[in-house]
Design brief:
The protein is mostly helical. Helices cover about 60% and strands about 5% of the residues. The protein is built from 19 helices and 4 strands.
Length: about 500
């Protein structure tokens, strides 16, 4: 394995794209029955190398919407994390895989998801001694700092932007301190250190750059039930508020996200996009609350009182709280198609309404990326497109199958749940999944209560991420517009 790793690094250093292509073609076949985390990590690194070599050859490729190498890089890094031997391949590799996955998402515009993986790397310090002395821990700090800077550039809320910079500044300082302690063992290009020093020197001159006392000390003061709800939303990163991605700080317990200021033609009247975004936001908040009630059994039991349910002797769970979670699941999934309708309207894609979905809206009739998207220098829109690859919409659609093969290992399972919730039947089991017979499970499509909860939370986080990118993507387009004759600015956001 180490020889293979060195060979990949050597091929990258010498721009040997053909060697990397040969590796990713042949090696996965050899390790088909091994499924080792380190093997998937090597494949991901090879795809990373191919991507970087292509970008060196043609810098314009960086902004292409369709980048197969990035997608496969993400896929194999995710596969590595899911392997049983992931925790046994060594702390340095665990850190490296999390950081590399974060970097892949950050490169493509999924800044929120990138931060999640940098946090996974950084949080290893709580369970492993001396993790802070690892070079990959150092890389996690600076990568997260850079992504927070990117996030601040995407956000149009001046107050929020300032806090992202403050947190980035704090991370850069921590990383520089680590470098001073470990510079004899780190193999870091000195240009990276110089860049960090320049940023720290620049940020240090900003007013109140180190003052985050108000941010950290702010406390919500509601009645107990509302407090519990808001704390739950906060810990799960459920608030439509970019600052929720900075951590579990009470100041972020409000859904402040809206559309940015819009430039519109006077003769077109009030923009429908505002109404549409309001609906998307309100539906998300509603489904989020239903999920909370279902998970915490907040429904008074008189709703189920005297309800006659025949015992089917099959460990099935029938309960109004479960139904709330199922409703929330369907609701979160439906938000993605509403986002597709929004994109179709805003960018004038002109897809017929009965043919719009979140997967297809990006493509023209020839199944190629629509130029209205592909030519845009819009990082948030790229992030939104990448989310579409985490969803599997139609089992019989070849394009959908292709998507699933290259990106999200669990997307089909999530779609199967949605399919059965919408059109068929699904059994929610009380017993653990390992006690269920696999054949019976597939025949009746059975999942456990815990599986339903876990996947609904995942779907909610994905929907929230998509809504935030949608707002930021519109901001990017609007700031490039200029007021012309017969146009007006609708001020939706007050600085």
């Amino acid at each position: 394995m180490e020889k293979l790793a060195k060979a990949i690094d050597n091929a990258l250093d010498n721009n040997k794209e053909h060697i990397l292509n040969k590796f990713v073609t042949k090696y996965p076949v050899k390790m088909k029955n091994l499924k080792k985390a380190y093997g998937f990590y090597l494949i991901a690194n090879a795809y990373n190398g191919i991507r970087k070599i292509k970008h060196k050859k043609n810098i314009n490729q960086i902004w292409r919407l369709e980048q197969e190498e990035v997608f496969k890089e993400i896929y194999f890094l995710r596969k590595a994390i899911k392997q049983e031997d992931f925790n046994s391949i060594g702390l340095e590799l665990n850190l490296g895989i999390y950081v590399n996955l974060g970097n892949s998402f950050s490169h493509y515009g999924r800044t929120i998801n990138a931060i999640k993986y940098y946090n996974k790397a950084i949080e290893l310090r709580f369970s492993h001694e001396n993790v802070v002395n690892h070079e990959n821990y150092f890389k996690a700090l600076i990568s997260k700092a850079k992504t927070l800077e990117d996030y601040s550039n995407l956000d149009y809320n001046i107050g929020h932007k300032s806090y992202f910079i403050k947190f980035a500044y704090k991370l850069y300082k921590e990383a520089l301190n680590l470098f001073e302690k470990n510079k004899n063992i780190y193999h870091i290009n000195i240009s990276i250190i110089d860049e960090m020093l320049n940023k720290v020197n620049f940020y240090s001159k900003l007013e109140n750059i180190e003052n985050i006392e108000y941010f950290e000390s702010y406390k919500i003061k509601f009645l107990e039930d509302e407090n519990n709800y808001r704390k739950w939303c906060l810990s799960n990163k459920f608030f439509l508020n970019s600052m929720n991605d900075l951590g579990n700080y009470d100041i972020s317990t409000y859904d402040t996200l809206n559309l940015p200021n819009l430039i519109t033609k006077i003769d077109e009247g009030f923009p429908k996009t505002i109404t549409n975004f309001n609906q998307i936001k309100q539906e998300f908040i509603t489904f989020r609350h239903l999920l909370f009630e279902g998970l915490h059994e907040k429904t008074q039991k008189f709703y189920d009182k005297e309800t006659s349910i025949t015992d089917d002797y099959d460990y099935n769970l029938y309960d109004i709280n479960i139904e709330k979670i199922k409703i929330a699941f369907r609701g979160f999934y439906s938000i993605f198609d509403k986002i597709a309708y929004f994109l179709n309207e805003y960018f004038n894609i002109e897809i017929q309404e009965n043919q719009i979905d979140f997967r297809k809206v990006w493509f023209n009739k020839e199944r190629k990326i629509n130029n209205k998207f592909n030519e845009l220098n819009n990082l948030a829109l790229r992030g939104l497109y990448l989310i579409s690859k985490d969803l599997f919409f139609n089992n019989n659609d070849e394009q959908s199958k292709k998507f699933i093969e290259v990106l999200e290992p669990e997307a089909q399972a999530i779609n199967d749940i949605r399919n059965h919730l919408e059109h068929k039947f699904i059994s929610i089991k009380i017993v653990k999944s390992d006690l269920l017979d696999e054949k019976e499970r597939k025949r009746n499509f059975s999942i456990t209560e815990d599986e339903l909860k876990e996947k609904t939370i995942h779907l909610a986080q994905l929907a929230r991420e998509a809504i935030i990118y949608l707002s930021f993507a519109i901001h990017n387009e609007e700031k490039n517009k200029t007021n012309k004759e017969n146009t007006a600015t609708i001020n939706l956001f007050k600085k």
